[in-house]
Design brief:
This protein has 112 residues and is mostly beta strands. Helix content is 0%, strand content 51%.
């Protein structure tokens, strides 16, 4: 399966990132059959890991059976530049799948 692409809004380095208030994962219009139990997201540029966020604190499962997630606003320890990410999920049958990938741009701040 090829993940869908969602490019996140840019933000200024050092500022809080707004997060993603609602993510609903569907396949052919329906949530996967087995409920989601965990998720993690990594930001990388090349082989460099910028940061990782995961359930339960950085990613919240709002509805496991409906595959509804949210990512609250938070500080991301990312330097200025373009970062790639993907959202890896694990369901109740211990199947790991990546449904979403994309990029985020961190803009260099002026105030130090």
């Amino acid at each position: 399966m090829i993940p869908g692409t969602y490019n996140m809004d840019s933000f200024l380095r050092g500022d809080w990132w707004d997060g993603v208030p609602s993510i609903r994962i569907t396949v052919n219009g329906e949530p996967p059959l087995s409920p989601i139990v965990s998720a993690r997201l990594q930001f990388r540029t090349g082989n460099l890991l910028g940061c990782q966020i995961e359930t339960p604190t950085g990613i919240v499962i709002e509805d496991a059976a409906g595959w509804h997630l949210s990512i609250p606003a938070q500080a991301l320890a990312l330097q200025a530049g373009a970062w790639n990410y993907d959202l890896e999920t694990t369901d109740a049958e211990d199947v790991v799948r990546t449904y979403i990938k994309g990029t985020i741009t961190v803009i260099q701040d002026i105030t130090r």
